[in-house]
Amino acid sequence: MRIRIDGTHAELAHAIRQIRTVLPVGSVSTLLQTGRPYTWRVFINTAPNRSTGGRWIT
């Protein structure tokens, strides 16, 4: 699953930390500047469910 998050640096850091506690995260993209000042965008790819025998290791 791919999750998109928009916000400030602090909001993104908090959201990524919260998502990592709940879901196995495969990768986090680099920060992308949006059209607004002080607003950034990041994409998070979550790994497959651990019980399915997915290929990603978290």
Describe the protein.
With 58 residues, the chain is of the alpha+beta class. It has one domain. It has one helix and four strands; from the N terminus they run βαβββ. Strands 1, 2, 3 and 4 form a four-stranded antiparallel sheet that branches. The two termini are 15 Å apart. The mean pLDDT is 85.
What average pLDDT do the residues reach?
A: 85
Poorly predicted runs: none
Number of strands: 4
Number of domains: 1
Secondary structural class: alpha+beta
* Number of distinct helices: 1
H-E string: EHEEE
Amino- and carboxy-terminal Cα gap = 15 Å
Query: Taking Cα atoms only, what radius of gyration do you get, to the nearest Å?
Result: 13 Å
C-alpha geometry: elongated
Q: In this structure, how is the largest beta sheet organized?
A: 4 strands, antiparallel
Quote the beta fraction.
25-35%
| Fraction of residues in helix | 10-25%
SSE layout and pairing:
Layout lengths: L1 E6 L1 H14 L2 E4 L3 E2 L6 E7 L12
Antiparallel strand pairs: 1-4, 2-4, 3-4
Characteristic key phrases:
58 residues; alpha+beta; four-stranded antiparallel beta sheet; 4 strands; 33% strand
Gist?
This protein is of the alpha+beta class and 58 residues long. The longest helix has 14 residues.
